[in-house]
Design brief:
The protein is an alpha/beta fold. The protein has 31 helices and 10 strands.
């Protein structure tokens, strides 16, 4: 048994490595490579692996670890702020998807139970794939990212009632009090888990960390993750939801970041197994024989999911562009639909042929997801520019009132960078206006007196309302590459003289943004590297002008290359030797000291000891490079600089009897 599992793992990792390597050359996401590897090695491919169950167990662990890390990134407070996305957005999306699916499927089945069950399958989206893509793209905290996460959380919670209702749809007599009791138990276990985040778990982790054992900490984290996931599954909830709740508990403690660092290597390894297991579901022969029927099913699923997701998010007040973006990201069938499909097939709600059509169609929608999410920013911008949808934008009141400024700064995005810039501009007195797509942020900041408005910066009309033609500077500080490009382009066309500063995540985007009209592009990854190397050079006490020269050359050349100045190695070594011998020391002049009343020139400190008085602090005021006529007084603090032995001689000198001689000859 062990050898069979080891053989399966070797085959899976080998084929996955080759698939991912080849697809990376074509700029195709790695998870597609894992799915293809599963299709090739699985029972419907070359048949290298006959027993899929072992792979599915590892896949479950991968999904658990993924949802655990997602939970750590959140907190109960953040979750409460997302309640609109979770409860209303998710609730409306699931209800709409089921209703529309019933209307589409019923003419073919003529069975209301089977039609509603088809709606159950279509309503769920893939938590594992969508969250992985959002994390990789750094979009979990964007407007569309928050809505997608909220809807996915609600869908995972829905797995319980959908599973309980499946026998009812099949016409099996069910004890309703038993179902109600199971739902109540699920609600109670969620409440207990969340309450433990406040008391039990932080205390446990504190005791574990106190032992200073890294192994114990890692084991405890894995135990909490797996244990809570198992506990919730026993009460009918999904393993993934339990893992998310476990991460949520850890997020409330100060040990969250250390927990993530311990779990991430395990998560990436096991999560690849999930995508491989999905690929193993594909029957290549059946797919080839019925490709037209499967493509039709894929198209129907995509249209239903995209339309119902967009409609539900718009209904709860999500901005139009964010709704379109999120709807494309949610337009696939979820991994828990496979579990639900197996239960439905056993209950007689799905025929063998329907099941064979459902599996490849669902996997195809999963494979489409990375490409859809990559194209989503551009598609959503294009869609929102169409006339019917543009009218819908106005109905949603996305436009701010006209800003009455001239020579002001326009800030797009009110994250950390936008807030810091606004604080400085307010302190200096430079007029500015802010635009953001988070309605909660806008509402809260307006109460604080910020000139912030709600709207989409990719709209030319909104930028005109903000006074783009009269503005002096446009700062784009958002995490959406496609929107950043469009805002930059519109800003430069509307006001060719405006100075545009753009923040971007990656160095590769610099040249394109400059071509669109950005005057300054600040890539986060390179600015971080600049900060790191400048601090390293400062630690080695390299001349400040040499360090500054490096930084200026990188920025001057649009970050294209890291130019190097030739700094003679001998110069650095000599400077290091010289500076390693130099030190500073302070000395407090106490009452009765011989030095009181003497001037710096009378003491002859430098001539007699080699140490230099660099500064003197008196009553909170610092006298730098004091003159020879400076007279020392009680409570003065002297700052000496020199070699260690020189400073030692200076301290001995001012406290020795030699000072008495000076006093008598005064």
């Amino acid at each position: 048994m062990q050898l069979e599992l080891l053989k399966a793992l070797v085959l899976i990792f080998g084929v996955s490595a080759i698939s991912v390597l080849l697809l990376e050359r074509l700029k195709i996401p790695a998870l597609v490579g894992f799915i293809i590897a599963g299709a090739l090695t699985g029972p419907y491919g070359f048949g290298f692996i006959k027993e899929v169950r072992n792979v599915e167990i590892l896949a479950d662990i991968g999904v658990i670890l993924l949802l655990f890390t997602v939970g750590i990134e959140f907190s109960t407070a953040k979750l409460m702020r997302m309640r609109k996305a979770i409860v209303y957005g998710g609730g409306v999306q699931v209800a709409l998807a089921i209703m529309v699916s019933v209307m589409v499927v019923y003419p073919f089945t003529e069975d209301i139970g089977k039609s509603v069950f088809a709606g159950f399958l279509i309503a769920l989206s893939s938590t594992a794939i969508v969250l992985k893509m959002l994390f990789e793209r750094g979009e979990t905290d964007t407007p569309h990212g928050r809505m997608m996460v909220g809807v996915l959380i609600f869908q995972d919670i829905c797995v319980v009632p959908l599973m309980l209702l499946t026998p009812v749809l099949a016409g099996v007599e069910v004890d309703m009090p038993v179902i109600a009791l199971k739902v109540l138990k699920s609600a109670v276990i969620i409440a207990v888990v969340l309450l433990s985040a406040k008391w039990a778990v932080p205390r446990l982790l504190h005791q574990v960390v106190h032992t200073k054992s890294r192994e114990l900490f890692t084991i405890t984290i894995i135990f909490l993750c797996m244990g809570i996931a198992l506990l919730t599954s026993r009460f009918g909830l999904s393993l993934a939801l339990g893992a998310f709740l476990a991460g949520l508990i850890i997020s409330e403690s100060e040990y969250a970041y250390q927990a993530i660092s311990e779990i991430l290597p395990l998560k990436d390894s096991f999560l690849s197994m999930f995508f491989v297991s999905v690929g193993m579901l594909i029957d290549v022969r059946y797919l080839a024989e019925n490709y037209l029927l499967i493509l039709a099913a894929v198209l129907v699923i995509f249209i239903i999911k995209a339309l119902t997701s967009a409609a539900s998010l718009l209904a709860v007040g999500t901005p139009l562009k964010a709704s379109m973006h999120a709807s494309l990201g949610l337009a696939q069938v979820g991994e828990f639909s496979f579990v639900l499909a197996a239960a439905g097939r056993a209950a007689g709600l799905m025929s063998a042929d329907t099941y064979q059509i459902f599996l490849p169609a669902s996997v195809t929608t999963m494979i489409m997801t990375p490409f859809l999410l990559k194209a989503a920013p551009y598609i959503s911008i294009w869609l929102t520019a169409r006339k019917p949808l543009r009218r819908l934008s106005r109905l949603k009141k996305e436009e701010p009132p006209s800003a009455k400024h001239t020579g002001h700064v326009i800030i797009i995005g009110f994250g950390l960078n936008g807030k810091n810039l606004a604080r400085v501009l307010r302190d200096i007195g430079i007029p500015y206006v802010v635009l953001d797509l988070n309605s909660d942020t806008v509402r809260d900041e307006r109460k604080n007196g910020q000139p912030i408005y709600y709207g989409d910066g990719t709209s030319r009309n909104i930028l005109e309302k903000l006074g783009i033609k009269e503005a002096r500077v446009l700062v784009v500080a958002i995490s959406d590459p496609a929107s950043t490009r469009r805002i930059t382009s519109i800003g430069k066309k509307e006001n060719p003289g405006i100075h545009i500063i753009v923040r971007t995540r990656y160095l590769s985007e610099v040249e394109d943004l400059r071509a669109l009209g950005a005057d300054e592009v600040i890539p986060e990854e390179f600015e971080t590297s600049i900060e790191i190397f400048s601090r390293v050079l400062n630690h080695y006490r390299l001349p400040i002008n040499v360090t500054t020269s490096h930084i200026e050359n990188i920025r001057k050349d649009s970050y294209r290359v890291l130019r190097s100045h030739e700094i003679p190695k001998r110069h650095m070594e000599e400077r290091q030797d010289m500076l390693s011998e130099i030190m500073t020391e302070t000395y407090l002049i106490k009452k009765g000291s011989h030095i009181i009343g003497h001037t710096l020139s009378q003491l002859h400190l430098r001539a007699k000891t080699g140490a230099t008085v660099l500064a003197v602090q008196r009553a909170g005021e610092v006298h730098q490079n004091p003159s020879p006529e400076f007279t020392f007084a009680k409570d003065d603090i002297i700052l000496f600089v020199g070699k260690k032995e020189d400073i030692g001689r200076a301290l001995d000198y001012i406290e020795s009897d030699k000072m008495l001689v000076l006093k008598y000859h005064r």
